[in-house]
UniProtKB/TrEMBL annotation:
InterPro entries: EMP70, MFS_trans_sf, POT_fam. GO terms for cellular component: endosome membrane; Golgi membrane. Belongs to the nonaspanin (TM9SF) (TC 9.A.2) family. Coiled coil: none annotated. One of its GO terms (molecular function) is transmembrane transporter activity. This is Transmembrane 9 superfamily member. Keywords: Endosome, Membrane, Signal, Transmembrane, Transmembrane helix. The keyword Membrane applies. GO terms for biological process: protein localization to membrane. It is found in: Endosome membrane; Golgi apparatus membrane. The lineage of its organism: Eukaryota, Viridiplantae, Streptophyta, Embryophyta, Tracheophyta. It comes from Zingiber officinale. PANTHER family: TRANSMEMBRANE 9 SUPERFAMILY MEMBER 12, TRANSMEMBRANE 9 SUPERFAMILY PROTEIN. It is a multi-pass membrane protein.
Length: 1261
């Protein structure tokens, strides 16, 4: 290595004489001399730091935990303004942490920075206590829940804000340095003290939590009772005591000298590397420039330890490449001082690399901070809406955080005393889990915490009791698991994070590493706020209160918790990838360096990944057990939002298209001679999905007055014409149903058959006995749940808005929780009816049993329409109102049969795959153990997949078609996965009509970029170049959509000929074409263009010029391909039955969670089947595996189509008419084609990866 000569200061002579008397990490005492181990540092100094941290935390949270209450009660700010001010103040604290870290690392050092900012902290608390005592609490005794304070002058408010932001400055500048300063008291070059340093971080976090516990309980109680001055003076006294104790330990502390402004060093590296961007890098890092000795002194880095060169970020290495003519002050003497803007030592370059490598890890911790933030906000709000009384004791919701603190203390003991020894014994390493592994474990536990919180919220909503102002009867003690899990995750995540950033940060940026931890929490607060805002913007529209409204009983906070669990799971995957990529810092001559701490990459991450897989399996089993044990009515259907109606408020149901299971062809309601509304027929706004489903929702003439029982006359038709009679009779014979909707609830009727009562939606147009009769009188029953207002308990936690007692009548009213009808056919007295006008009141009518009193359908007959409505109070809660529809006979989901089928298929496929893996591993092991001569001999003697090495990557037949189908398969698979995930989260439910289909179309359009990229990347891999990619891209964009449009156009012409509402208008058809051409096609071409710029996959072996002859087989290989589709079909067919029933029999499908599980298992099984079949083909020397791998899993589409025909024959046997049959078969064909492309793509891509991996693992040429 190129070096610059330098010498150590004579101050280290003591170290040279006795290297065990002084610290080895370069620390000094308060006089600047080398630090002696027996006289400085260790647990004596560390204990002072821990006590200081506990007292300072108590002081800080004594202000922060109830600041929002202070602003609302004392300063008379509204909830939104107070919450906003607290958020700004909290964010400022963490911003000042960066200021403190910069000053500490650059100029002042950690001791001086801690002392100065703690003094500012004390001054701010004293000023806050004085201003509160002297100016703000007027009149005396104000500031509690009952007595508000008088208005304050601008000077008084300015004095308050000056003091409170001085508190923010002092605490923010002090916090990131005190943790690092405490860690400085332990020599990491000494193995014993290095372990003590690890323990210090755990105790440091425990001290922080204990201080927070005291302030949240005792100080919080006094401040909540209005004793603000006492609380603030107690905080000031605690901070003063902390400062005095800190200063008392001055002579015992170990110090590290600041090394100067890090921004200059970073800029020097960037400038030097940019100047040498054309310079060729040496082959070895040993040839790069470095200063001689263990330390870098003077202007280079002011005494920081040398960092060894690491691979990666090669561009920056150019800053350390020596150019003798330009890099030194004396161009003739290389031992002279170098120009720092042209040449930087390796340590300076590696310092910048360390920061760049830390940033991805840091970014992945922000999502965890979002989860952690919920403990101070949504957890408290959730607890406020639960039963807070245990015995005779009332539990404040905010005090539940005590379980989090108890969990932290418990798990710190558990980790240090139990888990670490066990893991150390298993891993044969005294340190146990590495920091990155513990952070990953923390993310896994955080996922479990969010699942627990969401499950509690589901049951909380289920137990909302109408007799206690809609509070839930579920005890607040059910929140204990989620608090305990958050506490456990903190021990693994935040303690591991503190250790990791302190360990991996260069000597000159130790405080900056601690500041990253604080800014992660700060950004977590901001991201949480942004996420809540986005969720509310999406979900709270019109009359919908959104997921997290003021009254949680009207919202869906459980879905927000589950969304956080999914985001954390995705973050865990990214974190694992970043952790595998991460390269630890390497210090020269370190006895117990970070490279030992983090070990090699494989050994470091393997136990964590094993734990990750085990945890994921446990979580899945936990969710499945919940689904199996919980009754169906424990789940309410999302997608519809509560609207409260006042008494006598007029409401009107809407009418949807007439539908029939006999024909599956919908028609508009007003195609029959029904009474039109007074103001004319008006169509409701419909989304694209509703139009494609054939829905046409119109207004109706029916009018109700809430909670008023009435009977009305509607109208009398003109004498029926022959055409109208024919149409009415035809609709009656074809069993057409009238579908009505009130407050987004479909109307239901009950049918009794053989003593069993069935429920179904809609009511018939008429019925046939001796002749045909029309339904002309409707007896409606509307179920109401009386809503009596909301009472929200004060929570007053940091960063939260405080909601006071709401006026009882503000939200009082009625919720519609049921809509039922009894259809009747009544022959009215035309003479009496002719004297009435629309909405004239009539007497209630009993449905006649005698046919001579029913209204027949006859030519020239006039039909009078009447209706009556009754309102019935119900105990059904609004979140459960859809249960009646989901539990209807015929739509009841067979939970146990589904789960049993999934488990059988899963284990069957798993066993086959395990056997297969053992076979491949044995082949590879045997082959690689042979020497070259034996390998050559085995190539001549053995048969099997090893003999097709020269043909296995030969271009398949019809490569363009293969690339097109794979590209479209990627697009369909992506659309399916995203749609089902969103549906499982509740964005797309049966209550949101048409949203599922609309979402599928939108996702399909925007995933065109993925299809183009994958298709063209495969094309380049097969062809070896991008030639012809434009034609392939256009084919990908047009293949599946073209077939679908062709089939839909033929079906649409048939529906047009039948005058059905299922026929798409020309404008809608043009809209679909425009969306495809202007969104999907350009994105597909863009994806193809990006693929041409990406590197194509390199084959590991060369392809022979002459193709190898494939041995003859007794049975065609395609028989095995077709048979392979039965296994994926086994995972799908039960859900397929319910999906077909929901489409063709009008039943509701809502178990999207099960569908998501089925989709995951289907993907796994498709991959396994294709890989196994590919391997079997290669073993019999059949190298034409490309298409067989695709159709091995894609053949499931054949069984899906055959099952659809079976469903048509046996389940839709009453389906009449060629148009109806063609409609069914056309849609089934499109579905089967989409399934073939999706499953075939999954199998092919996994098989391609397998074959590439297989032939890359052996030494074959």
């Amino acid at each position: 290595m190129v070096t610059k000569s330098s010498s150590f200061s004579t101050a280290r002579s003591g170290y040279k004489a006795d290297q065990y008397e002084y610290t080895l990490d370069g620390s000094v005492d308060f006089r600047g001399r080398p630090a002696a181990k027996g006289k400085t540092g260790g647990w004596v100094a560390g204990s002072l730091v821990l006590v200081n941290q506990g007292l300072a935390t108590l002081a800080f949270f004594g202000v922060g935990v109830n600041l929002v209450l202070f602003l609302t009660r004392v300063l008379q700010q509204n909830n939104a303004e107070a919450a906003n001010n607290v958020s700004k103040w909290t964010g400022t604290v963490y911003i000042f942490s960066l200021v403190g870290a910069f000053l500490s690392d650059s100029y002042w050092g950690r001791y001086k920075t801690c002392a100065i900012f703690q003094a500012m902290f004390v001054i701010g608390l004293v000023l806050l206590s004085l201003s509160t005592h002297m100016f703000l609490l007027k009149p005396t005794g104000c500031g509690d829940e009952d007595l508000n304070c008088a208005p304050h002058s601008n000077i008084e408010l300015g004095f308050f804000y000056l003091s409170v932001y001085l508190v923010a400055l002092g605490n923010g500048g002090y916090q990131p340095n005190i943790a690092t300063f405490g860690a400085d008291q332990f020599d990491e070059e000494d193995s014993v003290e290095a372990r003590s340093k690890i323990s210090f971080f755990s105790y440091f976090y425990l001290a922080l939590n204990l201080g927070s516990l005291f302030s949240n309980t005792f100080l919080g109680y006094f401040e909540d009772e209005g004793m603000w001055a006492l609380g603030f003076w107690a905080s000031a006294g605690s901070a003063m005591t902390a400062l005095i104790l800190f200063l008392c330990g001055t002579t015992r502390y170990r110090h590290f000298k600041p090394i100067g402004n890090p921004f200059f060093r970073v800029c020097q590296v960037i400038v030097a590397a940019s100047r040498k961007w054309r310079v060729r890098l040496p082959s070895s890092g040993e040839d790069l420039y470095e200063v001689e000795g263990k330390k870098i002194l003077d202007s280079d880095a002011n005494g920081s330890r040398k960092i060894l060169h690491t691979e990666g970020f090669e561009f920056l290495d150019r800053a350390a490449v020596v150019d003798p003519m330009n890099d030194f002050m004396d161009k003739k003497n290389e031992s002279s001082a170098h120009n720092p803007w042209r040449l930087c030592p390796v340590t300076q370059v590696e310092e910048f690399k360390c920061v760049l490598r830390l940033l991805p890890i840091w970014l992945t911790t922000i999502i965890y901070s979002v989860v952690f933030t919920q403990m101070a906000s949504l957890f408290v709000e959730q607890g406020a809406a639960m039963n807070n009384v245990v015995g005779s004791f009332h539990i404040p919701p905010a005090s539940m955080s005590a379980f989090d603190i108890a969990s932290v203390a418990l798990f710190i003991f558990f980790y240090r005393r139990l888990l670490t020894p066990l893991v150390s014994r298993w891993m044969k390493d005294s340190k146990g889990l590495t920091e990155l592994q513990r952070m990953g474990v923390g993310l896994v536990i955080a996922i479990t915490a969010m699942i627990s919180a969401g499950t509690v919220e589901v049951y909380r909503l289920k137990n909302v009791c109408s007799s206690c102002t809609d509070d839930s009867s579920l005890s607040i003690l059910w929140q204990i698991p989620q608090y305990m899990l958050i506490g456990a995750s903190e021990v693994f995540m935040y303690v591991g994070q503190l250790e990791f950033f302190n360990d991996q940060a260069p000597d000159g940026l130790k405080s900056f590493g601690s500041a990253l931890c604080m800014t992660s929490i700060s950004l977590g607060n901001y991201v949480s706020s942004l996420l809540v805002t986005i969720i509310m913007e999406i979900t709270a529209k019109g009359d919908r209160p959104g997921w997290i409204p003021v009254n949680l009983n009207r919202g869906h906070m459980d879905r927000f918790y589950f969304l956080l669990a999914i985001l954390t799971a995705a973050d865990l995957v990214v974190f694992a990838a970043c952790a595998r990529w991460y390269k630890s810092i390497k210090l020269e001559g370190s006895v117990f360096s970070a490279s030992v701490v983090l070990k090699s990459l494989a050994n470091s991450m393997e136990p964590f990944l094993i734990f990750l897989r085990l945890s994921c399996f446990i979580n899945l089993a936990f969710l499945i057990s919940l689904l199996k044990l919980a009754p169906v009515d424990a789940f309410y259907l999302p997608g519809s939002y509560m609207r409260t109606y006042s008494k006598e408020e007029m409401i009107s149901p809407k009418v949807n298209s007439l539908t029939s299971f006999e024909t599956e062809i919908p028609f508009t309601y007003y195609s029959l001679p029904y009474c039109p509304p007074e103001g004319g027929i008006k169509k409701s706004a419909e989304n694209l999905g509703e139009l494609l489903m054939g829905d046409q929702i119109d207004n109706s003439p029916y009018q109700f007055h809430v909670n008023v029982n009435e009977s009305f006359y509607l109208c009398t038709t003109k004498p029926l014409t022959a055409e109208e009679v024919k149409l009415l009779k035809q609709r009656t014979h074809e069993l057409y149903q009238v579908n009505m909707i009130l407050d987004n609830l479909p109307v239901r009727r009950f049918i009794e058959h053989n003593g069993v009562t069935f429920a179904t939606t809609g009511f018939p147009v008429g019925f046939t006995m001796t002749e045909d009769y029309i339904i002309n009188h409707l007896k409606f029953k509307v179920l109401l749940h009386e809503y009596e207002g909301v009472k929200v308990i004060d929570t007053g936690d940091e960063g939260m808005a405080v909601v006071t007692q709401t006026e009882k009548n503000t939200l009082s009213g009625y919720e519609i929780v049921g809509f039922e009808v009894i259809p009747c056919s009544v022959k009215h007295d035309l003479a009496a009816m002719s004297k009435l006008k629309m909405y004239d009141k009539t007497k209630p009518i009993d449905c006649p049993v005698e046919l001579d009193k029913s209204q027949p359908i006859r030519e020239k007959e006039q039909i009078s329409f009447t209706y009556e409505v009754s309102f019935v109070k119900s105990d059904i809660r609004w979140p459960s109102r859809w249960d009646a529809y989901l539990k209807m006979d015929g739509a009841k989901v067979h939970w146990y049969s589904i789960m049993n089928s999934l488990v059988v298929i899963f284990f069957l496929a798993g066993i086959v795959f395990v056997i297969f893996l053992r076979t491949v591993r044995r082949d590879l092991t045997r082959y690689e153990e042979l020497d070259q001569e034996s390998q050559a001999q085995m190539n001549e003697e053995l048969s099997g997949w090893k003999l097709v090495v020269g043909d296995v990557f030969r271009e398949p037949t019809s490569p363009k078609l293969l690339c097109v189908m794979v590209g479209d398969g990627v697009q369909i698979t992506g659309m399916t996965v995203v749609t089902i995930v969103f549906a499982a989260l509740g964005f797309m439910s049966p209550a949101s009509r048409g949203m599922l289909l609309t979402g599928m179309i939108m996702f399909y359009l925007f995933l065109g970029i993925a299809s183009g990229y994958v298709g063209i990347r495969l094309w380049r891999t097969i062809k070896g170049g991008p030639e012809g990619w434009r034609s392939v891209s256009w084919s990908i964009a047009c293949f599946f959509p073209g077939i679908a449009f062709l089939v839909l156009t033929v079906l649409n012409f048939m529906l047009w000929g039948s005058n059905s509402t299922g026929a798409l208008p020309f404008s809608t058809f043009f809209l679909l074409l425009s969306l495809w051409f202007f969104i999907s096609v350009p994105l597909t071409l863009l994806g193809g263009f990006l693929a041409t710029r990406a590197e194509h996959i390199q084959f590991p072996v060369r392809t022979n010029q002459i193709a190898r002859e494939i041995p003859a087989r007794k049975f065609p290989s395609w028989l095995l391909v077709l048979g392979a589709g039965t296994l994926p079909f086994g995972t799908l067919f039960i859900e397929l039955f319910f999906i077909l029933s929901s489409i063709w029999l009008g039943r509701f499908y809502y178990v999207f969670g099960f569908l998501l599980v089925v989709l995951v298992l289907l993907i796994v099984v498709c991959a396994e089947v294709s890989v196994i079949l590919t391997y079997m083909n290669l073993c019999v020397e059949d190298w034409q595996w490309w298409w067989k791998a695709f159709f091995a899993s894609g053949s499931v589409a054949l069984y899906v189509f055959l099952y659809s025909i079976n469903y048509l024959v046996f389940q839709l046997s009453s389906l009449s008419g060629s148009v109806s049959a063609m409609l069914y078969l056309g849609y089934s064909l499109i579905m089967a084609l989409a399934i073939m492309l999706s499953t075939g793509t999954i199998g092919f891509l996994v098989s391609l990866y397998f074959v590439h991996y297989l032939f890359s693992s052996v030494k074959i040429d």
